[in-house]
Amino acid sequence: MITMKFGGTSVGTPESVRQVCELVRAEIARQPVVIVSAHNSPRVRMTDTLIAAAQAAQAGKPDAGKVTEAQLWMCDGLGVDPKASGIGRLLDRFDKLLMGIAMIGELTPRTMDVVMSFGERMSARVVNDVMRREFGMDSEYRSSITLGLRTDHNFGSARPDPRCYPAVAKQISDLGAGVLVTTGFIASTDDGQITTLGRGGSDYSATIFGAIVGAEEVQIWTDVSGVMTTDPRIVPEARSIPELTFTEASELAWYGAKVLHPATMQPAIENDIPVRVKNTAMPDHPGTVIHRKSAPSPDDGAVKSLAVMRNVSLIHISTGRMFGTHGFMSKVFDVFNRHEVNIHMIATSEVTLSVTTPHGENAEKAANDIRAFAAVTVEKGLSLISIVGEKMKGTPGVAARVTKALAQHRVNIRMISQGASEINIAMVVEGNQTEAAVKGLHGELFE
Ligand code: ADP
Ligand code: ASP
Ligand code: MG
User: Is the shortest distance between the CB of 184 and ligand 2 below 6 Å?
Assistant: First the structure.
C-alpha cells in the first residue's frame, strides 16, 4: 500500500481536483490511502477563511458566507451535489456553529479545532465524489475521525496515540475499498472531541497513515517540485533536491521549511518508510525522495538546503552568576516545558542564557514566569535561518563561508550555533534582513 497526500493548492480548483484523481488512478494497483487538505483556491484559502469567520463570530458577526460560497463554487465546478455528498449538511452545521460562537462570545482552542475541521471534511468528500462519479473508481470516503485516529487533548497541535493504530488498520482493511479517501490534519480524542495536528498538519497525517497501514511509500503532493534548496518564494533560483536523508529532512522541517510539517518525518523514520515529495502540476518531475541513507553523490555539496523560520522570539535570561547557581538551567527549562514552548536554539554565557522560540502566547507566559527568579528580556520579530546537510560533518570552512556571505550582504548575525552533530548551522537575524540573508546565503552556497 501507499499513502498519497494532496495539499491545499493541489485541490484548489476543479481542474486540480481532476488532476489528483488521475494521479491516484495511476497508482491504483498499490491500494492508495488518499489524504486530503482543505481547498486553497486562488480565491479562498479555506482553513484561513474558517479561522477568520470564527474570529468574526466571536466579535459578534457570525457570517458563513465566504466559506459557503467558496465550497459551493468548488462543488459547482465539479458537479458535486452538496446534498448527496453531505457537504450541504456540513455547511449548515458550520453556520450554526458560528451562531453558537457569537452567542457565547468565546472561542477556545477546542472550539477552533472543530471550526478548522470543516475544511478537510468537505474537501475529502469532494475528491471522493469526483473519483467515484467522474472517474468510476472504487473509492470510499471515511474521515480520519470515523476511522478511529486518536490523539491527546492538545488542541491546535495534538499528537497521535499509536495505541489506536491496529484498530484503524483493521477498519481500513475491513473496508476493502480500492481507494480510501480520508481527511488530513484532523483526528479526535478518545472521548470524541475533534483535534488538529497543527497548521500544515496533513503532511503529518500522511506519514501517520503510512505507519498505520505499513505503507511501502508516502507521497506528498504539493505546489513545488519537491524539497528545494530554499523557499522558492524568497529565492526564485532555488533548485529541487533529488535526495535527502531522514535526518536532513527532519532538520529542515523542524527548522521551518514549510513544505513539510515539523513532525512529518517522525512516523516515517520509526517505520523506515521512504517519503516522496512531488509537484501535482508537474507529475513527471522526479521531485525529492527522502529515505534512510541517501547514497552521497560526488556532486552533492556539503549543504543541502536552507530553511527559514520567521516570527521568532529571542529570550535572554540573566542572573548574577548563572553557572554558580545549581539547578538554574533545569528551573528555566521546567518553565518552558510547563508552557509547552519549543526551543530551537540555545546559547550561553557566564551570565546570560539566550534561547529562540516561535513567537506566541505560551512563550510570553513562560517569560513572565521566569521573571520570578531571573531578569528576562524578549526580542520579537526575528528570523531563524538554518543550513542543513549531513556532509557538512567533516567539511571544513562552511561556517566561514556563511559568515562571510552574511557580512558581504551587511546582515548582522544576532546569534549562531552549530550542534556537535554538525549537520545544521542555525543563525538568528533581524526580521527585516531575512530576505537579504537568505538570498546572500543561497548565492554563496548554491549558485
Ligand atoms: P501544501 O498546501 O501542498 O501543503 P504548503 O504551502 O504547505 O503546500 O508547502 C509548500 C510551500 O512550501 C511551497 O510553495 C514553498 O513556498 C514553501 N517552502 C518553504 N521552504 C521550502 C523548501 N525548502 N522547498 C520547497 N518548498 C518550500
Ligand atoms: N488545512 C490545514 C492548514 O491549512 C492543514 C494542511 O493544509 O496541511 O493548515
Ligand atoms: Mg502544507
Answer: yes
